[in-house]
Amino acid sequence: MTTALRWHRVPRLLAMAALTVMVLGPLYWITMSAFKDREEILRSTPTIFPEHPTLENFRELFTATDYPSYLTNSFIVALLTAFFTMLVSFAAAYGLYRLRIPGGNKVAGLILVAYMIPGTLLLVPLYQVFAKVQLVDTRNALVIVNVAFTAPFCTWLLRGFFFAIPRDIDEAAAVDGAGPVRMMFRIVLPLLRPGLSTVGVYAFVFSWTEFVFASQLLVSDDLKTLPIGLSAIMGQYTVNWGLLMAGTVCTVIPAIVPFLFAGRYFVGGLTAGAVK
Amino acid sequence: MRLRKVRRAAVAALALAVVLPVAACGGSSGPSGGGDGDKTLTLWHMEQPPNRVAAFQKVIDAYNATNPEYKVQAQVQDWNQIYTKISSAVQSKTQPDILFTIPDFTTYVRPLGAVRPVTSLVEELDKEHTFGDAAKAAYRDDDQYWAVPLYGMVQMLWYRKDLFAKAGITEAPKTWSQLLDDAKKLTSGNQKGIAVPAGKNLATDQVIYSLMLTGGAGNFFTDSGQVAFDKPQTVAALSLYADLLKQSPSDAGNYSWGEPQAAFNSGAAAMAIEKGQYLAPFEKESGRPASDLGCAPIPQADTGGQPGSIYYSNAAMVLSPDDARAKGAEDFLRFVLKPENYGQFLNAEPGLFLPLTEDGATAPSWTDNEVIKKYQGCVDAMLEQSKTGGLFGFVDGQYVDSIGKVSGQNILAQVVQRVYSNGESPAAAVKWGQQQMQEAVSR
């Protein structure tokens, strides 16, 4: 019986192993390549582990390029984007899904429509507007654009979390004399922490990987973010693969870490409300 | 008690909301705009790799150290984004003072209205340093020069002498049939005879164009600017390219600039057609001595062939909003082309950036570079190849205003892809290319 059960598991285990290799394989390859010299990276018979592990690519990355500056800029923009997205989407979701506002459902629908507008269509008009208000070539411009793109989706994302909090709690708090603001901060906010973590992670990762607007709105080298910096390392005509691999490793890690802590909430947030 | 905590949290959040954006403001210097008191000229270039950025910066620092009225500040841009970016910048009057360019990009920027003619400066520099004709011609239109030529680039046939010796091949191919025969001989096991790109990108555009030039199909516009792409010479060049792709690595359909070079240096491919960026990293990436790197002119068609290769000069346009700033920009360009500074500028990517002036080609600031000295033979061959080079839209004295629409859509690369990925015949793909180009230039 036990053996039969074990055999029964084999296809599932094989599928999981295949999926793991498919997902983590490229990441492993990039990481190992970052520790190889340029000849070993390109060798036609690839090596699984670096033959002569070297930190040269990382040294070059942090000394010969503006990578530390890109990293700092990305952190500032991503943290601010996450903070303001949490603030805006929490307030919006509370109003739309918790308070009984006439036409609230329609407004909620409109917010999602806004999310569906392709960002690239807005490139030139946004550049001109930001130029008029002296925001071109500032990190603020990126934060504003990122929040504008993440907040609608995050407001919708919080919907499931709000619905999971029974309205009876609000009523009980109201009976105890709590007003809407106090209820929002004292009752709902603490219960919504998983949802807000999800929103924060989503906004952080969105901002961390955002390329199109950053490439248009930032002009100065000292304000550029990681995606732009990595693209610069790729360069025209020739590629320094070692530098690129080291840059990719250092860029991926900060995006993975928040997911390790909040990943389960994120999946929960996407599926919340799907089953009653 | 609890209410106090909530208040404190709210105050903290508000404080964060106020303080964090201040941190985000950053020290933006912004594009020029040319305010009255602003004595900094903005220079946009698209040479992004760190070594090129650092080398250009050294030249700029040396210029700024001479205490000019207007100092120069470089801002590095991305070729893939520059078309949208410059358009937005000109419309919002925040364009840079100096913008690096190539001939077809110039045809795109000029109609935006901010480019200043630099005829007197080019003529003055020509007298002083002597430009080659090919360097200047692509920037002359309406009896004016629109950019100052700075550095040239030309494609060659690169080959691995060690792999040639193993296959018993004693010299580089000179004709298309020899090129194909050698590619076949060199293909065995994991090794391919040649690595040519077939991605929808400028790299593919340029490699197929080099073969079109040596097959007599380099000029695909009539004197009146009509498209004349669909002709037997173009079909022949495309047929050869399709045959070469059969001797290329199987992922050539995704290749751009970096991949053929990686295949070449790893020994996965014995030949490649590209520019002088193959020199500097060869030893480090291949683990082979410099003597194993061979270079030769692009092979010519067996019948009706002619010497040629894609060749173009990179240049600088002046977009300053007022005369004083424009004069400052011109002073900087004069400084760059002085032989004592020019070499340092060119050696931002030794071998890839070739001199365009007579005194620049012999300037010790360029010739003393390690890479240039080590690969002297190939460098000389590239300079020689430059003399017969050309660029689509600018051959035979042409200046096709609409060429940017053809190159911007990578129509040449798309023609290659139709043969390589869709299995179309070269004749049908060329016919399709003719239609696409006609549509592009008529818009």
Automatic annotation (TrEMBL), chain A:
Pfam families: BPD_transp_1. Residues 71-262 form the ABC transmembrane type-1 domain. It is found in: Cell membrane. Keywords: Cell membrane, Membrane, Sugar transport, Transmembrane, Transmembrane helix, Transport. CDD domains: TM_PBP2. It is a multi-pass membrane protein. The chain crosses the membrane at residues 12-30, 75-97, 109-129, 141-158, 191-219, 239-261. The keyword Transport applies. SUPFAM superfamilies: MetI-like (SSF161098). InterPro entries: BP-dep_ABC_trans_perm, MetI-like, MetI-like_sf. Belongs to the binding-protein-dependent transport system permease family. MalFG subfamily. This is Carbohydrate ABC transporter permease.
UniProtKB/TrEMBL annotation, chain B:
Keywords: Signal. Pfam families: SBP_bac_1. PANTHER family: ARABINOSE-BINDING PROTEIN-RELATED (PTHR43649), DIACETYLCHITOBIOSE BINDING PROTEIN DASA (PTHR43649:SF12). CDD domains: PBP2_TMBP_like (cd13585). The lineage of its organism: Bacteria, Bacillati, Actinomycetota, Actinomycetes, Micromonosporales. The keyword ATP-binding does not apply. It comes from the Bacteria. Residues 1-24 form the signal peptide. This is Sugar ABC transporter substrate-binding protein.
